[in-house]
Write a structure and sequence with these properties.
The structure is a single chain. About 45% of the residues lie in helices and about 15% in strands. The protein is of the alpha/beta class and about 500 residues long. The chain has 16 helices and twelve strands. Strand 1, helix 3 and strand 2 form a beta-alpha-beta unit. Keywords: Glycosyltransferase, Membrane, Transferase, Transmembrane, Transmembrane helix. It is a multi-pass membrane protein. Its EC number is 2.4.-.-. It holds the Pfam family Glyco_tranf_2_3.
């Protein structure tokens, strides 16, 4: 009898949950509630699967299995797109030269830079044997990151794997690593080799961190990358659906080859032309082709955060528009026969992220409007306040506490503070989803490059939280290659 009484009370509460709202608004709020509850369930599932990945990594560590044991079996090709990167390019390339792998090439794509990038790279070529500079010239230059990477992919096939000591190297044993011009790749990056010993793995994403986290804004960005990489990426690794990020992604060349498509000029390359989040796009298409995507617990790449809110909003608008662009990949993701139903459902929900964000933001604005116009008057109580706080803050709280594990009361309280910093940051940048949708609907595709900040030689932050299972917390130089316009007869040609 008591149980029936409790059930009646619960049903009555649910029935009256949105009483007083305009009739037309009630369905919108019910959809929002469904989205919130589904997000909580999704988060719980991913937390469980992430913990399993931690346990697996700890097991490998206990067995003293060296993740880099097979790195010499692979050729590591580091591709660095560079457009006016004079501030950071030397730092990035010099650090890539220090990556401890047996077989390596560094391909920097100078994408029509008009600052000192070209001169800096020319000087580096005299010092670094691994380095080759590909120079894109007008009108071929500055067409987008995808186009720059595709030129490097074509050069890799037509030159690096067609002559010299790496001639006829098996594409299944070539690992293409994308590093942004501000990237500082872990010198022990060869440890991702343990993932590629599985022949089904097409891509592995390293953990992304912010090295200049000296302000609340950059700290929040560091937390953001940490939460995403640790929970949402590691959680999907068990399914093989961890996606690729723009910086620090390792892709098997054979996997890239399998998704190569022609661009509007008829030139073939793996990266689809016009995608603002080319990393997300190619990661999904590799999964559709039958490859696994995984997240590394061993390797980190550090990059610059943005201290300008205006620059951050512009950057995230571009990223958000990219997530709207990949809506056309929802159907092939659902039809992917290589994934279990649970993985398809998770990927479907993941791809709906911008729509969910836009819907929940719309309902929140409506709530404030109804309160301001006194259309509804909530019955304030402690229970109501707790429920409201739970829905608003709990996901951020759980994400930060799970990602930044600290012992003791002090560590716990610091992380609670960080969680609220992250929560405020999330709401500050929330409007980008609407700005991005507007740009997508109006066909806007142009974007402004984010300027780099001056760096010090050793300014990485050293307090990166170690996640459970994270261990330890030669060819002659080539001349610069000019890549001519699309109608040229050859893809690349050496300068005289």
């Amino acid at each position: 009898m008591n149980s029936l009484s409790w059930l009646r009370t619960a049903l009555a509460f649910v029935a009256e949950l949105y009483a007083g709202l305009p009739i037309w608004a009630i369905p919108l709020f019910w959809v929002a509630l469904f989205m919130i509850l589904t997000s909580f369930v999704s988060l719980g599932v991913l937390l469980f699967k992430t913990q399993r990945q931690f346990a697996h990594a700890l097991n490998l560590k206990r067995k003293q299995i060296d993740p880099a044991e097979h790195e010499a079996d692979f050729l590591w090709v580091f591709m660095v797109p560079a457009l006016n990167e004079a501030v950071t390019i030397a730092d990035s390339v010099q650090r890539l030269n220090q990556v401890d792998v047996t077989h390596a090439r560094i391909l920097v794509i100078n994408d029509g830079s008009d600052d000192d990038t070209g001169e800096i790279l020319a000087a580096l070529q005299n010092e670094i044997e691994r380095l080759t500079v590909l120079t894109r010239v007008h009108p071929n230059a500055r067409q987008g990151k995808s186009e720059a990477l595709n030129d490097a992919w074509r050069f890799l096939h037509s030159r690096v794997l067609s002559e010299g000591i790496y001639k006829d190297w098996d594409p299944h044993k070539v690992i293409v690593t994308i590093v942004d011009a501000d990237g500082r790749l872990d010198p022990t990056a060869g440890r991702v080799a343990r993932h590629f010993t599985n022949s089904l793995v097409g891509g592995v994403q390293s953990q992304v961190r912010i090295y200049n986290r000296t302000s609340l804004l950059t700290l929040a960005q560091d937390i953001e990358f940490g939460v995403f990489g640790t929970i949402f990426q590691l959680g999907r690794t068990g399914w093989g659906t961890a996606n690729m990020g723009g910086n620090g992604q390792f892709n098997r060349l054979a996997a890239l080859d399998s998704v190569a498509v022609p661009d509007p000029h008829g030139r073939v390359g793996p990266w689809a032309s016009g995608r603002l989040t080319e990393d997300q796009d190619i990661g999904l298409r590799m999964m559709h082709a039958g490859w696994r995507g995984e997240q590394s617990t061993e390797v980190t790449i550090n990059q610059q955060g943005l201290n300008s809110l205006r620059a951050l909003m512009r950057q995230r608008t571009r990223w958000s528009q990219g997530t709207w662009q990949v809506f056309d990949l929802i159907r092939p993701s659902l039809r992917n026969r290589g994934l279990p139903f649970s993985a398809k459902l998770d990927q479907f929900w993941y791809l709906l992220t911008p729509l969910v964000q836009a819907w929940l933001g719309m309902v929140l604005v409506m709530s404030f409007a109804f309160l301001a116009l006194q259309i509804v008057e909530p019955r304030w109580s402690i229970l109501f306040a707790i429920i409201l706080y739970t829905f608003a803050a709990m996901p951020s709280m759980v994400g930060v506490l799970f990602t930044r594990r600290r012992r003791g009361l002090k560590g716990f309280l610091i992380n609670v503070l960080f969680a609220h910093v992250y929560l405020m940051y999330s709401w500050i940048i929330y409007p980008v989803v609407y700005r991005a949708l507007f740009r997508q609907l109006t066909g806007a595709r142009t974007w402004a490059k984010t300027a780099r900040e001056q760096i010090a030689p050793d300014d990485e932050a050293t307090d990166a939280p170690a996640a459970p299972g994270t261990p330890g917390e030669i060819e002659p130089p080539h001349p610069t290659i000019d890549i001519p316009a699309p109608n040229a007869s050859k893809e690349t040609r050496p300068l005289p």
